Amino acid sequence: MATIESRRKSVALALSKYFSLDPSVVPADSSDSDIKSLYLNIIAVSGHRVNHSDEVLKWVAFAEAFPVALDACFENLKRLNDELSGKAVLLGNGLNPSEADVIVYSVVHSSLINLSDTSKEKLPHVLRWMDYIQVTKPVGAVEADLKSNKTEQSIKNVNKSEADSSKDKNKAEGKATGGKSTGDKEPTKGKAKPADKVAEKENEVSVSLLNIQVGLIHKAWKHPSADSLLVEEIDVGEAKVRQVVSGLAKYYSPDELMNRRVVLITNVKPGKLRDVMSEGLVLCASNEGPTIVEPLLPPEGAKIGEHISFSGIDGKPEDVLNPKKKQLEKITPHLFTDDKGVATYKGIPFMTSGGPCTSSIPRATIR
């Protein structure tokens, strides 16, 4: 279990990594300060402005008050779990963790991993958030550095390695250009991409291009000429129901799908599947094989026809997806359920007014 002193060292190191600082520049007495003073000192050294100051300081206070004793921290973790129920990170643009996330992660990590499995099961959003933080920011390296007490040496080694790598690269470039220095070289054409083209490229694969809605299956029947397909009439709050063809015949009978809530993409280009018109794509979670396939389930509180949202991601859906651009094919690899079965895009939950969409299949692909 972490002590107050080790907790503050963890926060100091995590913030140093977050702001790309050498920990040696952090004032020596910072680890003896409270977390708020520590945070403000590091901000001052880094030269960054304090963004979302009120919100960040709220979570700094949460971290400062977080109990050290394991048996006293569960209620605080439940509060954190509730806060994360509808978003990927505490603060930020919906994808990138903020300094508040880094601070809280550093404080709660050791307590959470020492909880019983029963207690962990009650904190699905915290567990998802911790997994997401670990893969998006170098916080996971904090614990290892603290345990080895070689943080500064590690940073020096990294800096030396980067410097050596840079020298080797410059030598190689000098040979390739007949020994000319970098300043003598003519600019290489075609290497740099304009910022607007990079942004356009990123927008091409954004989930905001998809029009994903909550639907209700009114009727389902077997496809007349394909044993693996079912045909469904789905209400998405429009004047008329949509007819959708799905590859669910191996996993469900038509009766099992009657009056079932589903999640579907409604701006795919309509087309015939084995001579039957389909006007949407029902999103399903599936395991490897697949041996189990299950339509995503919106919560009971979700309204029929409402649009699925993703925290921090804005944008207008395409009227109709262009199959030639393969937009859907670029987005679906980022759709999956987390270890608690919550449907996500890059770790961000599929959200409705009634809560997230889910599946009984954890860590599944969504197609």
UniProtKB/TrEMBL annotation:
GO terms for molecular function: ligase activity; tRNA binding. It is found in: Cytoplasm. Keywords: Cytoplasm, Ligase, Protein biosynthesis, RNA-binding, tRNA-binding. Its main location: cytoplasm. Residues 159-174, 182-200 have a biased composition (Basic and acidic residues). GO terms for cellular component: cytoplasm; protein-containing complex. This is Putative methionine--tRNA ligase isoform B. It comes from Glycine soja (Wild soybean). The lineage of its organism: Eukaryota, Viridiplantae, Streptophyta, Embryophyta, Tracheophyta.
